[in-house]
């Protein structure tokens, strides 16, 4: 399982022990070291060209990831971009935030309702369990890939629609199937009988 992990530079500097624990735990749970966006570049000392190369690599890694995990105690735009991109690409996302009892109340991400988005406040003690549960649940949420043979006419339409709607061809097909599922009364009856 490919994991994309991101957080703010401030969290990285101020909470190195927790950061290291997250990376170590994810590596142990999956057998793979997650891709960590912050480890690619020192933004404060990088040239514009170096930043551009790093950002292109991050986008590629985000696209290749199966799941995205963010530590969002200090909200930053780059992490928000990664969350939005991942959800738009139908990837399960875990948003972590250090528990702060002095500031109770909902976090903006917590009030969003999306089956792919999990928001969790954590302490040092429960972090490993949270990561383990999310990874186990993410396996069930991951899309199944299959090959679809289409006619040249359908391919021309999908190419045109992808360019004009700024969507991947697979997203267009998925939306069409989801719309069909929503309108299929027989399928809804089947699901009710199974429940």
Structure, explained:
This protein is α/β, with parallel strands linked by helices and 195 residues long. It folds into 2 domains: 139 residues, Rossmann fold, CATH 3.40.50; 43 residues, no CATH class. The chain contains 8 helices and 5 strands; from the N terminus they run βααβαβαββαααα. The protein has a 5-stranded parallel β-sheet, with helices on both faces. The longest helix is centred in the N-terminal third of the chain and has 17 residues. The protein is globular and about 55 Å long.
What is shown here, in short?
This protein has eight helices and five strands; from the N terminus they run βααβαβαββαααα.
> How many β-strand runs?
5
CATH T-level topology of the largest domain = Rossmann fold
Can you identify the CATH class of the largest domain? Alpha Beta
- The helix/strand series, from N terminus to C terminus, equals EHHEHEHEEHHHH
Q: Indicate how many domains the architecture comprises.
A: 2
Q: Tell me about the largest β-sheet.
A: 5 strands, parallel
What's the helix and strand layout?
Layout: E1 3-7, H1 9-14, H2 16-30, E2 35-36, H3 48-64, E3 67-71, H4 77-88, E4 93-98, E5 117-122, H5 127-141, H6 152-165, H7 169-183, H8 185-194
Parallel strand pairs: 1-2, 1-3, 3-4, 4-5
């Amino acid at each position: 399982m490919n994991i994309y992990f991101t957080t703010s530079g401030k969290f990285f500097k101020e909470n190195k022990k927790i950061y290291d624990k997250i990376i170590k735990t994810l590596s142990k749970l999956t057998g793979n070291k997650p891709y960590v966006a912050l480890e690619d570049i020192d933004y404060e000392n990088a040239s514009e060209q170096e930043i551009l190369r790093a950002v292109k690599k991050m986008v590629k890694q985000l696209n290749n990831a199966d799941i995205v995990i963010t530590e969002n105690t200090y909200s930053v735009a780059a992490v928000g971009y990664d969350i939005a991109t991942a959800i738009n690409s139908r990837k399960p996302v875990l948003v972590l935030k250090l528990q702060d009892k002095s500031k109770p109340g909902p976090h903006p991400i917590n009030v969003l309702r999306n089956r792919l988005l999990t928001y969790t406040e954590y302490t040092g003690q429960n972090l490993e369990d949270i990561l383990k549960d999310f990874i186990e649940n993410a396996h069930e949420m991951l899309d199944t890939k299959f090959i679809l043979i289409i006619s040249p006419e359908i391919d021309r339409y999908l190419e045109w629609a992808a360019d004009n709607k700024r969507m991947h061809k697979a997203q267009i097909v998925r939306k069409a199937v989801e719309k069909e599922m929503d309108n299929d009364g027989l399928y809804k009856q089947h699901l009710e009988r199974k429940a």
